[in-house]
Amino acid sequence: MNSYEIHEKLKENSVDWSVSEKAVDSFRDSLPNILSLVNEKFRLESPHSADQEIRRNQDFLMDAHRHFGEMLLAVYQFQIWGSLIDEATWYYQSVSSRGLSELYFSQMLKTWMIALYSCIKPPEVHQLADPLKWLSENAGELSQSKEHDSALSEKASDLLDLLFRNEKYRAEQLLRSFFKNSSSDEALITQLILPVLSEIGRLWRDNQISVADEHLAVANLRMIYQSFFRTLIPGDKREQKITISCVPGEEHEIGDELLSLYLERRGWPVSFVGHSTPEGEILRMVEQDTPFAIILSATLVSHLPALESLVRKIREEFPELRILAGGSAVQQAKGFIQQFADGFPDSFEECHRMLDDMVNTHA
Fold it and tell me: In the CATH hierarchy, which fold is given to the domain comprising 3-143?
């Protein structure tokens, strides 16, 4: 059985745990204290640890623990247990690629459970700890598990190589050649730009590139596609304005920026808010611009609570505003968010079509 088959088997065999609203609230309120206990244990033990990589990667682990806790909160709140397997697998791959052993992963899970029992009382703590116990019991299989990584096309591999070599002119020429042959900006985005971006993230996860390498490649990629889209002639200008924003805390904004460029080419006036904008500022922007629709994105599961909070407030304050939500994390929690949002496009073309349909229905 290969690593991908092990991953899928784990998801099939996972349990649909039941976590009450009271348990979720307790975890949310206690998370700062729980995280402090987890980090303190590793800080105190790392000087004496037999695992030298724990000492060497201490700063990385402190940040990783924070992300793990935020992810747990979202999984508990939205009961998305398949995502727990995906996220735990990604976590294990990112730490093991930095030399941390399966022993560290097991220690980390046990430390979280100890911290839970230190901060939260029964019966809520049992509900919260059960999924972590399952992860701990299946740590061996998780260490062999791997999500499916799509292979890059030859053109995408060539583009990635040029980005890392800082050959921006040749990279832009490749991008323009691809567009000339496909005659489709959506194909350019979905078959070339987004796969390259995903591969950069995978290479960082697997510790095959540094943070500096990642930043260089992403900055070069943004530079060339922004230059390319500036040369395209937009369609007839529409009256209805669109606001596009990441949810608060979300740093992955390139998908949003590409969607903005894609919709602007089709005549939509777009206000692109970008990443990590506070909730209040997004609401202020909506009040100021009075858009026809707002498109929100969440890439990381840990940002789903921020998405739900923002969508609720938009619905309360601007009941006529159309709301679309997208991003890889959103697809996993549609059942909870669909009572507030108007649609969940899973492609750029579908987003454009949904907006068109909404305009025609509104008219």
Answer: Globin-like (1.10.490)
Residue 5 CA to residue 206 CA, distance in Å, equals 19
What's the token pair of residue 108? 């980390």
Q: Kindly state which CATH superfamily the domain 242-362 is placed in.
A: Cobalamin-binding domain (3.40.50.280)
Find out whether 294 and 351 touch, Cβ atoms under 8 Å: no
- At residue 242, the 3 state secondary structure works out as strand
Phi, psi (degrees; rounded to nearest 5) at 352? -60, -45
Percentages helix, strand, coil for the chain, rounded to the nearest 5?
70, 5, 25
What are 142-180's pLDDT values in tens digits? 777 666 667 899 999 999 999 999 999 999 999 999 999
d(CA 91, CA 105): 9
Written as six digits, the tokens of 250 are: 């979300």
* Partner residues linked to 271 by β-bridges: 243
**Structure token digits, residue 35:** 């995280």
Tokens of 254: 């390139």
Query: What 8-state DSSP symbol labels residue 233?
Result: P
Closest CA to 177 of 160, 155, 161: 155
Domain ranges for the chain: 3-143, 156-230, 242-362
Residue count of the chain: 363
For residue 190, the tally of other CB atoms under 10 A from its CB is: 15
Q: Which residues contact 307 (CB under 8 A, 6 or more apart)?
A: 247, 296, 298, 325, 329, 330, 337
pTM summary value: 0.90
Q: How far is CA 181 from CA 136, 155, 178, 235, in A?
A: 50, 12, 5, 21
198-249, pLDDT tens digit by residue? 999 999 999 999 999 999 999 999 999 999 999 988 888 999 999 999 999 9
In the CATH scheme, what is the homologous superfamily, with its name and number, of domain 156-230?
A: Methionine synthase domain (1.10.1240.10)
